[in-house]
Amino acid sequence: MLQGEQAYLDLCKLILEEGHKKEDRTGTGTYSVFGHQMRFDLNEGFPLLTTKKVNFRLIASELLWFIKGDTNIKYLLENNNNIWNEWAFERWVASEDYNGPDMTDFGLRSLQDEEFNMEYKKQMDIFKERILHDDAFAKKYGDLGFVYGKQWRKWETKTGEAIDQLKNVIESIRTNPDSRRHIVSAWNPEDIPFMALPPCHTLFQFYVADGKLSCQLYQRSGDVFLGVPFNIASYALLTHLIAHECGLEVGEFVHTIGDAHIYSNHVEQVKTQLKRETRPLPKLKLKSDKQSVFDFELSDFELVDYNPHPAIKAPIAV
C-alpha cells in the first residue's frame, strides 16, 4: 500500500500515464482513474505537501467552518479565505437581483478572455464586499445551504429533528472506542438537489487501536492537483483535534477516492510538481490547552518546520 507524500505523487503519475479521458460538468475535461487508496502515518509528520506550498491557514479555517456547522461564506471571507466564493457567486449572478454584465460560464470564460476576466474580478470584488458588509445580502447569497457544516452538525430527519453527527461520533469514540460505527456522513440524498456542490468527501470513519485514533475518508470525487492536498491535510487536522479531545494519540489517515482526476488544464502544473524532490514533513503544534474540538480557533494552531517548494497556481473548475 502506498504511503505518505510519495503516495500522492504516485497517484499523479498513475493518472497521467493511465487515466481515462473524460468529460465533466464544468466542461474542462479530466484524466481519471477509479478507486484508489493512500495511507498517511500521522506520527511521521503532518501530511501537508512539500513538493508545492499549500496554504495551511486556508485548510484550517475551512475545517473550523465545517466544525462550527456554518454554511455561510462570510466567516471564510472574514478569515481571508476565498475557496468557496465561486459557488456562492454563481448563485448571485444567476439571480434576478443581479444586474451587472453577463457572467454565464465565468469559470471558463475568465481563463479564455482577459477583458472578461477583469470584469469578472470586478464583480467578484463587489460580491465579496456586499457579503462582508450587508447582512441581508450575506444571508441571501452567502449561504451555501446543505453543505458539509450543515450535514456534520445539523443533519435534518424526516421528523424535523437535528442530529449532531460530529458531537455524537466524539462521544462514541470516548465511551465505546471499539465500535465499528464511528461514522459521519455528508451525503444526504434528500438534500443533494439543494446543495451548491454535492459533497465530494462523502463519509469518514474513525478507528481506535493501541491508544491511537485513525480516520478513513471516502471521497467520491477528487480534484487531485488542487483539492486532494487540502482534503488530506484537513482530515489529518480533524483527526489530531478529535484524538486530542479523546485523550488518544494519532494513528493513520487513510484516503480512499472514487473518481480521482486531474483536470486537463492542470496537466502541466502536475508535471512541474513531479520534477521536485520531497522534503521532510512539518509538525503540527496545538498552542492551546483547550480540550473541545468546538473551542479551537485559527490562532491555536502552529505548523512547525514547513519548508515546501514554491506554490504552483492553477485555475479552479466551477
From TrEMBL:
Binding site for (6R)-5,10-methylene-5,6,7,8-tetrahydrofolate: 55, 223, 317
Superkingdom to which the source organism belongs: Bacteria
Binding site for dUMP: 25, 180-181, 220-223, 231, 261-263
Assigned EC number: 2.1.1.45
Keyword set includes Methyltransferase: yes
InterPro entries hit by this protein: Thymidate_synth/dCMP_Mease, Thymidate_synth/dCMP_Mease_dom, Thymidate_synth/dCMP_Mease_sf, Thymidylate_synthase, Thymidylate_synthase_AS
CDD domains hit by this protein: TS_Pyrimidine_HMase
Its job: Catalyzes the reductive methylation of 2'-deoxyuridine-5'-monophosphate (dUMP) to 2'-deoxythymidine-5'-monophosphate (dTMP) while utilizing 5,10-methylenetetrahydrofolate (mTHF) as the methyl donor and reductant in the reaction, yielding dihydrofolate (DHF) as a by-product. This enzymatic reaction provides an intracellular de novo source of dTMP, an essential precursor for DNA biosynthesis.
Assembly, per entry: Homodimer.
GO molecular function: thymidylate synthase activity
Subcellular location: Cytoplasm
Gene designation per UniProt: thyA
Pathway: Pyrimidine metabolism; dTTP biosynthesis
Keyword line: Cytoplasm, Methyltransferase, Nucleotide biosynthesis, Transferase
Name this polypeptide is given: Thymidylate synthase
Protein's organism: Oceanobacillus luteolus
Principal localisation: cytoplasm
Gene3D superfamilies: Thymidylate synthase/dCMP hydroxymethylase domain
Residue numbers annotated as active site: 200
Signal peptide as annotated in the record: none
One family name in Pfam for this protein: Thymidylat_synt
